[in-house]
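Quiz preparation item.
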């Protein structure tokens, strides 16, 4: 029998994922030592335009794992999940809060603790609670309009954990909500089951409430029998509405994988960083690796892929890369949030996922929040962090 949910998944990988979101780093090499923001001289032109500061209230943390761009005929919003206030906040493109939808903790209209969201228009705010495996559709006033129950936690069988963040967003296509999933198998207890039984997507029919789990790890052969941590196996993904495909990217895999809406693999393609090793370093002392800090330190040392994003306005893709570091950090450094010398690069690919170029981004850019807008690509800037501001750099991107 598997452990209880608190030890099965939440205790380790979610703690690790929190560490990964709060911190990041990059490799110190000649290619990444540039201090200026002149990024590339090729067929690709990227120009920093401005920084958008989202002005927070005194209750809101300057940390969020989910961001969405939304526009209709009247409004353009940057929407954030605020876990500290259990609310979804709508900002204009000048960084000013326009409205807030609060999710109730308790009572008949409660959602419990919000993990992520998707907004598709008036009275269509979808809230994910991973503790109860529930999806709620809320009105713009925060009233629960509909509840969907996914498979509950299990202790003696396999199940899929719904989990959505910036690089793992929910999507609605033809009245079906596609929710990213993580295998409900504790990785360090049984890596083989994690890789072979684990499903990466839950498809929820919004009309009937029926749901199915689909898509196994397409790259299990690359990881089976090797000493990697679960942080290198999370399936980031993006959706291309033009081709109606989901494209999956994994932190520890140079390749990307395209799927139909019903979960059939249709294409595999390498989209490799110029700064990534051919073979990722395995973890030492496998028997004693079951430790979130050790797993995080292994993450710091490796150059890995943090997310894949489709730009429907320009019909191109972005793959964000976090570089590795040789700097040694202690548990106390992590607990005390010691600044980490961090660098990221950005791979840009054409509509067919052929690499155009890779650009090293300036210091301070982080992978935690990335969103595509008609004006360009917004990426979190943590160079000069402030408690009451979330700063997003806007880059205008042109392919010559």
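Solution:
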């Amino acid at each position: 029998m598997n452990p209880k949910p608190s030890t099965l998944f939440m205790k380790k990988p979610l703690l690790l994922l929190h560490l990964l979101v709060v911190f990041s780093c990059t490799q110190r090499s000649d290619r990444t030592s540039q201090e200026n923001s002149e990024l590339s001289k090729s067929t690709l032109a990227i120009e920093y335009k401005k920084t958008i500061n989202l002005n927070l209230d005194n209750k809101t943390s300057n940390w969020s794992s989910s961001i969405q761009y939304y526009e209709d005929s009247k409004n353009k919003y940057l929407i954030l999940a605020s876990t500290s206030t259990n609310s979804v906040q709508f900002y204009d493109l000048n960084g000013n809060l326009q409205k807030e939808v609060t999710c109730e903790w308790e009572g008949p209209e409660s959602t419990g603790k919000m993990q992520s969201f998707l907004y598709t228009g008036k009275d269509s705010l979808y809230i994910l609670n991973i503790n109860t495996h529930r999806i709620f559709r809320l009105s713009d006033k925060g009233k629960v309009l509909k509840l969907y129950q996914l498979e509950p936690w299990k202790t003696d069988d396999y199940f899929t954990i719904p989990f959505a963040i910036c690089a793992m967003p929910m999507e609605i296509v033809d009245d079906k909500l596609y929710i990213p999933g993580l295998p409900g198998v504790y990785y360090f207890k049984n890596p083989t089951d994690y890789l072979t039984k684990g499903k990466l997507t839950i498809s929820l029919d919004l009309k009937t409430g029926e749901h199915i789990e689909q898509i196994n790890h397409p790259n299990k052969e690359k990881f089976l029998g090797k000493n990697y941590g679960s942080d290198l196996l999370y399936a980031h993904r993006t959706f291309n509405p033009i081709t109606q495909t989901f494209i999956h990217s994994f932190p520890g895999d140079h390749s990307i994988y395209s799927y139909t809406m019903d979960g059939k693999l249709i294409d595999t393609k390498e989209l490799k960083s110029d700064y990534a090793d051919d073979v990722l370093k395995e973890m030492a002392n496998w028997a004693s690796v079951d430790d979130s800090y050790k797993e995080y330190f292994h993450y710091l040392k490796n150059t890995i892929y943090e997310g894949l994003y489709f730009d429907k306005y320009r019909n191109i893709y972005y793959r964000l890369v976090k570089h590795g570091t040789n700097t040694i950090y202690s548990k106390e450094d992590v607990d005390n949030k010691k600044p980490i010398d961090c660098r990221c690069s950005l791979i840009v690919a054409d509509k067919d996922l052929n690499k155009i170029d890779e650009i090293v981004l300036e210091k301070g850019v982080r992978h935690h929040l990335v969103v595509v807008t008609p004006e360009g690509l917004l990426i979190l800037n943590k160079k000069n962090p402030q408690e009451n501001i979330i700063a997003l750099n806007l880059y205008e991107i042109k392919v010559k």
